[in-house]
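Below is a concrete protein record.
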Amino acid sequence: MARLIAARRTAVVPRGGAFARLSIEELAAPVLIACLADAGIDGAQVDEVILSNALGAGGNPARRVALAAGLGVAGLSLDRQCAGGLDAILLARALVDSGAAEVVLAGGVESYSRRPLRLATDPKGGPPVAYDQAPFTPWPDRDPDMASAAEALAQRLGITRERQELWAAQSHAKALKSDHSAEIVPLLGVTCDAFPRQLSPALLARAPVVCGSVTAATAAVAADAAAAVLVVSDRLARGRGLAILGGATVGGDPMEPGLAPIAAVQRIWHGQPLQMAEIMEAYAVQAIAVVDGAGIDPAVVNPGGGGLARGHPVGASGAVLAVRLFHGLMAGRGLAAIAAAGGIGTALLLSTAREE
């Protein structure tokens, strides 16, 4: 059974902030190096580096990061948008459990600040047209903007603005009370997440409306960050770290991407007690819908604050959830779950137990 024996991340910094000039190699290479140092694993033992990157321009980002970290592996890059960081870990688990590898670094990296400008060519020969969001389905009428999808979810499930604001305020409050220093690799002098703040009722009331009941306070800010875990065979782990009990990725209704993680959670978790759950908060309504729909105890969800208090570095966000679990789960089982554009949901189940 594959195990996580190290997990580190950078701080999460809103776009245009302290990490605005860093390349993805400069963001992620120090994280990989820190994971290896924490575990006492030599770089020559690494069989593969798997990284998610959603907003870059290709070129196999995982290879670039691996080289910058002094690793000679080929590198494998993937794009499942927000879910990619967790999916990279599931791929690492598959390699290790199959015997194809014994040591895999997996996670995600995103520089929202350095994302390329996009132009679509005109098939009729006209000038290129700028666009920001890539299509996530082949049907324009079934490919909603994420904020619009979040508002539609709020309307259908009756999740009010007040409930979303309470969730956001609690996320920030928990983050402000938490010490994440053990998981963060200092970079450019930044040693903590930059965004958590006190969300007063007055501040929540004047937050700009994004769409309907969704406001700037209940939607995660675009951010820059990198996160990775070290996945190794049970032989090399020697009882250290967390066992990967299960993982699943599902394709759901593209019109309701926020609900996709529910089915992924249900495939791997069957109501056993959870000591900790890291549920991505791209939008407060999406996190609430997953917690309610999957039947997760809110008391164990995001104990150190969630994405609303950190920010959303798209391709790295799923890996950040896994890093939080690694450092926060003291005993028992922990769950991570995330939704992605196009109706994708991914979930990961970890355990402190030696055998399950």
Observations:
- The chain is about 30% helix and 20% strand.
- The chain has a mean pLDDT of 95.
